[in-house]
Amino acid sequence: MFISFNKYQFYGKFFVLVLISFAAGFFIYYHPPFPKSFDWQLIFPFVICIILAVALILIVMQLLFFPHGVLIDSTNQSLTIHYFLKSANTVNASDIMYYTTTKIITRSSRYEGILVRTISGQKFLFTDFNLADYKPIRAFLVNSKITFSGHEKFKNIPYFINFFKHR
Description:
This protein is an alpha+beta fold. It has four helices and eight strands; from the N terminus they run E-H-H-E-E-E-E-E-E-H-E-H. The strands form two sheets. Strands 1-2-3-4 form a four-stranded antiparallel β-sheet, with helices on one face. A four-stranded mixed β-sheet has the order 7-6-5-8, sandwiched between helices. Strand 6 (110-118) and strand 7 (123-127) form a beta hairpin.
């Protein structure tokens, strides 16, 4: 069974990415000349640019490092995790140490899901935020008798650090 990505989140992120890129390009091209004396009015556009840059980086990291699709193979007891630009990663049920429930809270929505931790220390996020439906993955984990370890608060930055640590 293949679970694809959440189309609304994926295309919405691309739209915002293009919008932020145009806004940043417009500001860089049309910025006022730097005066010889310090002007407080120039601080506001630079703060806005810093906020846009952080948002841009976060969106790009979510697009690149959150799973983009999952193939559940019940016969081989494995999950093949697909990413946007990275090659697929296959995880056997025997390599999974435990899983926890988690929530991603955005300004407009609350997405439920699971975090899977492997014996090697890798973490994989499966939520409605990045996938069309994570519940078949949870059913696969329950059927494979993988240990459930409660609820874990999700944080973007530690997840991305863990991603780079194990690549």
